[in-house]
Amino acid sequence: MRPVSAAETAPTLVPWLVHAQSLRVRAGKHLAVDGLDLALGAGVHGLLGPNGAGKTTLMRALSTGIKPAGGTLTLLGASVDGRADLREVRRGLGYLPQQFGFYPRFTVREFVEYMAWLKEMPKAAIPDAVQRSIDRVGLTAKADAKMKTLSGGMLRRAGIAQAIVNEPLLLLLDEPTVGLDPEQRLDFRDLLRDLGSDSCVLVSTHLVEDVVAACTDVLLLNEGRLLFQGTPDDLIARGGPNDAGDSPAERGYSALLRQHRSNA
Amino acid sequence: MSRIVGIEIRRSAAFGAALLIAVAGAIVLQATSGRWSSGWMALVMVQREYLIVLVPLTMAAGAWQSYREHRANVAELFATVPRPRALQIVPALIATGLAALVAYLVSLAAAVPRIIDTASYLPAAAFAAVAVGVLTLVVAFWLGLGLGRLRPALATAPAVAVIGFAVLAFAPQIFSSGAPAAAFFPGSGMSVFNVYDTVGGRISATQALWLVALAAAAFVLFAVRDHRFAPAALAPLVVGATLTALVMPTGDAFERAKLDPVAQQLVCTKDDGPRVCVSRANESMLREVTPKARHALELLSTTTPIVEAHEDTSTFSPKTAPAPRADTVLMNVQPDKSGHLAFPGRLELQMLTGAFGGPVRCGDSRNYTVGTVAAFFLLGREPATGLDGTEFEDPEAVQLYRDLTALPKGEADARMTAVYRASQQCRDAMAILTGGAR
To answer: What ipTM goes with this model?
Structure first.
């Protein structure tokens, strides 16, 4: 049980929590996202795509870490461009980067608390929020262990804990299941379903099975453009018995890519 | 915020750096206790002088802290949080600032037991000098953070230490006057020449002004997310340097500000015996000096009008001297390494030699041999070399002493009185001593 603020219970007034039109984003000199149209509401959205498809660059743009090079991007109802004040938008964001940086001498609790402070959470709400987020990722027993003593999977969970500490309306997780063992991945899927019930969760991953199991929506990105958006069942339906893959979802994934490449 | 600052202090390099700086500061002070045993002001000034060692060390600690932050690879994550970078760095600035403050004060506190029993005069300028010293170390830490952020590499910390030391050691030499060197390098110009030395309030204020400008530059360097904006740090430096140059005391004003007239004021015995006075800075030695000084006054009373003994508070830079008084002999009162009277066995000899050798204002007319002969005559023993005698063999003085003591007492005393009068008038007293003239 925790007190819930009025802001948290207020109905969402924007039609899309993420809305991109003709979005272009550079990764260095390379245009990694090129004319992307995207609209995401509440739910868990799995972002799939081959290496170099622009997934991480898109995640960085949605996290407000890099500015779009063109097009329009609206996050949580607010326009995100070079001149916008991003402070309010960022208060509603949670982000786990692909390369999760942390202070090795901090304990898990200290690091998550530090992130809560950086996210400008109310001082009084921080201790409970920190404990809750650590509990949700299953790190309760390691809360007072130093970050540098954690295994790869535990570090990833600590990264998720810091991302969800402010109960974000838009949660961006870039490769969150790297290093997790099978049991932890099952727990993580449960956590995703829980988180996606009232916020927009975008999960970038190479693991098609995770997407099918936990996501309400699948996005397939290739060469900086959106190739497919639909439900997991839609993805599965795209595959045939002759397509590459060990599962129906993987066959759907490879079928979409093969079809796109043959049309190009 | 306080919890975050606490986390920063526990987990960052601040605590280790504070320990390192405090130990280094304590070692250099303890190893040179003879330089500051004379009192509180000397202690705080010598500590300021050793900023030449502590500042490069502290800057290196700051650069190392920034390198650790760089290695932690948190930049991408921290770039997406709502708290602006300028506010994100506040806990780190507070933690490192506190570390520098504590380190400076701990190394100072470690020196206190050595002089707490002997040092008495504690002017407000001492607190100002410590405050500027603390501020210097805080700004050094922040500059290190800024430079480390500008060049986040393993070699930055040692490079900052070496370059910092070279700048502090050699850059003050480029100024022909001591004023700008002291204003821009707060460790410069802190050498203690006598117990009346101080750091004037205007000098401390000027140093603080320049340090604030440096702190602003360090903040800009540490706060900018994009290195292309780092040159913005030059703006506070230019403004600060201009204001400092306009405000700093120069010429005579600068020289006068280095001397504390209150420290020179005399503090005298209040009992019924002959009056003995020492400077306020040396007040703790009055009890030690008084019996020796009164013995010398007793010896002088037979042949001179002298009835009081005052500490010689003359200084060379700026040039000051106590007003000449016919009834007063001057004493050279110097503290030793433990803050007590240095060479106590020499005090009487020095007073007597000074009385008959002539005052300082006589310059080359002063005759040390005459003073030595007269002094040993009053002491009733032959001039000797060694700790309580002359510092070199003086066969001429020995012969003159023997000639003087061979005279009838009345004649000898008359010559002594005449020698005293002549020496006070800067006349040649040798001829009088040998009986050639009166």
So the answer is: 0.90
